[in-house]
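Help! Submission page says 'invalid entity' but I think these are all valid:
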Amino acid sequence: MSFGIMLAILGGVLAAVGGGVGSAIGVGRVGRAAAGVVTEDPSKFGKVLILEILPGTQGLYGFLIAFLLLTQIGVMGGSPLQLTAAQGLLYFAACLPMAVCGLVSALHQANAAVAGVSIVAKRPEESGKAIIFAAMVETYAVLALLISILAMFNITASINA
Amino acid sequence: MRETEYTYAVARIRANEQKMLSKSDLDLLISSDSYDAALRILSDKGWPDAAGGSVYDICELEMKKTRDFIAESVPDIKVFNALAVGNDFANLKSVLKAFFSDYDPEKYITCPYVCEPSLIIEAIRDGDFSSLPDYLSGCADEAYHAYTDNQSGQLTEIIIDRACVNTKFRFAAMAESALLNEINTLTAAVSDIKIARRSVSTGKSREFCLAALSGCGALDPQTLTDCAFEGKGLAEFIEGSGLPELSEYADADFTLLEMRCDNLITEKAKNYKHEIYGADAVVAYYYGKSAEIRNVRIILSAKLSGVPKDIISERMREIYV
């Protein structure tokens, strides 16, 4: 196995770990707040559940990037490409937006969602606004996901050309 | 402890804040026709149904509910201990006096506490304070000898009060609560102002006054003593010590000074009303709830005594919600 493919796989690992760790911490944090509200008023379960789910998407995005990468470099099919170190580094760099942004945005989205849980606790009729505040952070995770996918497909296209 | 560990407690508090009495609820209570009518309103608002109970019983039940709620919500008992530790010193004082006056000390216990009152009773009975926690044992030993050897109730109180203020600051630092520290600084300053003014009005010496002052607040004990005994410059000194909000009450009646202090505590607590993490949100709720219970106590006592509505309104403390 070449050094290039090792670099590429490392990028995929970082994307999965960054998004996954961020989401695990974020969902756990919002979960604690949600549990606090549901202890006092079980009827708010549905509203706080949506807020709890929001920081979980970064983990899915990280998984998606890692899966696409493994497919692109042929690891999933059992016949990995022979990548040069430079090509491997390109794949590694393509995964970084998702790795870094996934981790950071999940943590900040969790903070916004915890604040949203307080809104649901005090003004359940305003829960839609609480969800929007937290969902705004998602924009940057989606942008990172898109840029990682675009970079990866274009790198594959240039290698195959 | 990381402040995000308080997420569960803070969320429960936010949900519970909905159940606190609002300004219109208090107005409704004030304008109620009788004590029983006020009790019915409170019962509808979720207060303990204490029909036939005294004002003290009703307020104590609600306070116990608040304490239990905080104790079961917080991840770290340090914050709860910081709120309760002052009562250990109140219990020490009560037990000491009750024991030597042949009263039952159990009847004078204040809740919540950190140190089991039975330990205090046992220590005073045996004259051995080694079983008490560190923060209490030295002070208990000193106060015990001041009471038994010198027969000085005042000296005993000074020893216990000073140790109490110091311990409250230490526990607030351990609980990592900036709000509790601010509140302790304010209450220590108000307590020192009252001691200095009372020393003058009761003809005590400057030395006595200096010994009695905690010196833990923002006020320098020597200057405070000088201002109080010379009868001038107290307001300017308080203002210059970083407490301008108290300065205009420097020479006011003690009731007004205490009311101002209560209102300032609630104002400080309100600054943490929108915090989503940390021990300060818990401390803010505790003081907010205490202010609410104080208001209810004033209203119910006034209803029993037939105090006019406008007088009751004047005595109302600032509310948290």
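Support: the input was valid. A stray whitespace character was the problem, and the output above is from the cleaned input. The mean pLDDT of chain B is 89.
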